[in-house]
Amino acid sequence: MELLKIDNLCKTFRKNKVAAVDGVSFSVFKGEVLGLVGESGCGKSTLAKLILRLIDADRGSIFYEDKDLMKISRGDMRNARKDLQIIFQDPYASLDPGMSAGEVIEEVYDIHKNVLGRERKNKAIELLETVGLGESYLGRFPSELSGGERQRLGIARTLATDPEFIICDEPVSSLDISIQAQILNLLAELKKRKNLTYLFISHDLGIIASVCDRVIVMRSGKFVEQGQCEAIFTNPVHDYTKELLASSAYLIDKKSK
Amino acid sequence: MVRGVDLDIDKGECVGLIGESGCGKTTVGLSVTRLIPERKGNIVSGEILFEEKDILKSSPEELRGIRGKKISYVFQEPFSSLNPVFTIYEQIKESLEEKDNVAGRIADILKSVGLEKITGKKNIYPHELSGGMQQRAMIGMAIASKPSLVIMDEPTTALDVTMQRQILDLIMELKSRMGLSILFISHDLRIVFNIANKISIMYAGKIVECAPKEKIISNPAHPYTIGLIDSIPSFEHRKRPFNAIRGRAPLFSNLPEGCKFYPRCRHKIDACMKREPELKDVAIGQLSRCIRTGEF
Asked: Which residues of B touch A39 (CB under 8 A)?
């Protein structure tokens, strides 16, 4: 089932002449992990923000379960973001240093007003447990957490609205390798348990290869190739995909050399 | 903090120093030429033998003859390591060993690091170059003094994969052409597998395993090394959970008794908490700091 359908989405920032996202079309199907891979500046994070309307697209359409997100009001969009969520790359930058872990999660309910009163604290505890942190973390501030714990808190906040579709925007790139593996395990487990769908953005082909069902390769705002993960990695068609794979052969197969 | 590290780098060899953030690997690199200011920290004990002389006993003058000359550095962020108000030409000139035929020498260096484009241009500033070209310029500065050892601290971490590949190829080429010895510091085993002859794995300020690359890949001995390798995302173990290392690295202010890795180790036994193990031979050229090495 098509969960999200993007058609001819475009965005050019005022200060630049070239388009950051240049007429891309794709669908995300329920229950899959769709990988979006590309080098820095190719427009992958801009695309993520366009889908959530954190920035507005110039033209094109974004259908989420038959709802045209480009045509709904800001209020309705905020409501839609209960279902469509994002996990950001940098857990250091995306958490308010002045808010405790409990407050970070409860703030979500202030915004969406869907959980009231004392129930909020219980929900916060439940979410912290879901991501492997637990009640003892309620009063802790981001500065007291390690990088991995911060990203777990970021994931708990993302899960607070019970979304069905999550954009993971480089969720592990700022983490150490042992912690990275823990977070990837957590994301895979949550997907299974909550029947989630992911758009997984990364510049690391090793990570894309290990977590995704399908892959889109992006360059200069455009998609150069998309297909099943196996096909892209074993039989790439576009020259740029081939170049990316050749450059990172050692990142994909750990025993390549 | 570094709590007793032994590293040997032979001539023409590339040694990879692997560890997660905060394990002390950068401190090791900086300590080699005593680059850590005294107000921030001291080298309490040990020796650093470079070409059979102890750097720790060198006078300030001798040190100046080594730092940036016989031992040079390439750091992670080229833009913050290059001086923004001097041209690339001036910065390479500064590190030149001999001061005759400067223009010719600089042209040779630029060519050897793949910067033919700016050869002959004296007025190019760092901000005019892309990240990859800046890193090439940094490498140019590092080799200008014809060093015998280059310490590279995450030299490709800030770069995209295609650029990363090009820089690694460049480093390999310079290594064989100039007979350079390299200490390659990185958090990414995958990159070090590509470039190093020998690999040392660091945890909580000490080396926990050290072996030729092939041994680390085919037969890692220390549970931490095994965990790191199991954490590498790759195509071959797609869609399977990682056999990840539990928990997090200890803080130096709160190191556990005994083996520093035991709280996260899946093979721990009571004896692990009693005493920190020594680095012991487990195979030819392979050392591991674990009392249970070989049992799992």
From this structure: 160-162
Res A15: pLDDT: 84
Interface of B with A in 229-268 (CB under 8 A): 229-239, 241-242, 244-246, 248-249
B65-109 pLDDT per residue, tens? 999 999 999 998 888 899 999 999 999 999 997 888 999 999 999
Dist. CA A39–CA A211, nearest whole Å: 18
3-state secondary structure of A26: strand
CA dist., res. A96 & res. A77, Å (int) = 23
- Name the band, by pLDDT with cuts 50, 70 and 90, for residue A254: low
The DSSP secondary-structure symbol of B67 reads B
Q: Are A171 and A141 in contact (CB under 8 A)?
A: no
Angle at B229 between CA B228 and CA B235, to 5 degrees: 130
Domain ranges, ordered by start, for chain B: 14-84+147-288
B14-18 vs B181-186, strand pairing mode: parallel
Q: What is the pLDDT of residues A189-222, one digit of tens each?
A: 999 999 999 999 999 999 999 999 999 999 999 9
Check if the beta carbon of residue B279 is closer than 8 Å to that of residue B289.
yes
**Model confidence pLDDT, tens digit, residues A88-135:** 988 778 899 999 999 999 999 998 888 888 899 999 999 999 999 999
The residue ranges of DSSP E strands in chain A, in sequence order, are: 2-11, 21-29, 33-37, 59-64, 67-68, 84-87, 165-169, 197-202, 214-219, 222-228
Q: What is the DSSP string of A190-207?
A: HHHHHT-EEEEEES-HHH
Q: What's the CA gap between B141 and B158, in Å, rounded?
A: 18
* pLDDT at res. A255: 52
Q: Does B281 touch chain A (CB under 8 A)?
A: no
Contact B245, B228 (CB under 8 A): yes
Q: How far apart are CA B285 and CA B267, in angstroms?
A: 23
A149, A172, A176, best to mutate vs chain B, most B CBs in 10 Å: A176
Residues of A in contact with B164 (CB under 8 A): 247-248
- For the segment(s) B14-84+147-288, the CATH number from 3.40.50.300, 2.60.300.12, 2.170.130.20, 3.90.1150.10 is 3.40.50.300
pTM tops 0.80, yes or no: yes
CA distance B241 to A151: 18
Cβ burial, residue B220 (10 Å; 0-12/13-18/19+): buried
Main-chain phi, psi angles of B235, to 5 degrees: -65, -35
